[in-house]
Amino acid sequence: MPRSALFVIDIQRELAQDPKTRIPHAERVCSAGEKILSVARGIIDTYRSSEQQSPSTIVVVQHEERPEDGTLVRDTEPWRLVFEPRDGVREEVLVAKTTRNTFETIPDLADKLKADGITEVITFGIQSECCVVETSKGALDAGFKVTILQGAHSTYDTESKSAVDIERAVEEELEGRGAEVIPWEDAVASWEQRCMISSYSIFSEL
């Protein structure tokens, strides 16, 4: 069964919660993240309850910096995650990275995902034009199908572009490379529908 990996990228307190440093659309990204993870975890739990392999896994990505390079220093408040993987759930993993591209920091990550049957990477998080786009491109380069969840990623405004303009530019760039751009609400609705059908099949066999 083809499986997908949901990458939750760098939704950390400095970027998403601290009123002094968070991105302008942090509330939107966090609200979307709560709903996305609620549905994704519900699907995982449905399969776990029937002792069958889930069609998806959740990869929580956490950026780390050295004190001389930035403020996302390990074990500090800015570095901490908004959404942490659940303890004891095999389908939820935490990965640390030090570069924008998660696959660059962890060279064997793609092979590990493929060995686990993963064929698609789904991305959302912070910042659109940094770690979200670079991790998405890393997944494409590694041969995965890639979907970015529109409305569930964002960044800071710049002098010349608004955060929303940057979001759209990133989506266009990834689409041009072969990725799919889907509003997160549509993706979640599709997952829920497929889970309902699959759940009927799973439990009818018990």
3D architecture notes:
The structure is a single chain. With 206 residues, this protein is of the alpha/beta class. It has a single domain, classed as Isochorismatase-like (Rossmann fold), CATH 3.40.50.850. Helix content is 43%, strand content 21%. It is built from seven helices and six strands, in the order βααββααβαβαβα. The chain has a six-stranded parallel β-sheet with strand order 3-2-1-4-5-6, sandwiched between helices. Helix 5 links the parallel strand 4 and strand 5. Helix 2 (26-49) runs parallel beside helix 7 and helix 5 (128-141) packs parallel to helix 6 (163-176). It starts with a strand and ends with a helix. Residues 200-206 have low confidence and may be disordered.
Question: Brief overview, please?
Answer:
GO terms for molecular function: hydrolase activity. The protein has 206 residues and is α/β, with parallel strands linked by helices.
**Biggest sheet character:** 6 strands, parallel
Spatial order of the strands forming the largest sheet: 3-2-1-4-5-6
Contiguous low-pLDDT stretches (5 residues minimum) are: 200-206
CATH class term? Alpha Beta
Compute the separation of the termini in Å.
Answer: 19 Å
Alpha-beta content class: alpha/beta
Shape: globular
CATH fold-type name: Rossmann fold
Mean pLDDT: 94
Q: Could you tell me the strand content as a percent range?
A: 15-25%
Classify the helix fraction into a percent range: 40-55%
What is the domain tally?
A: 1
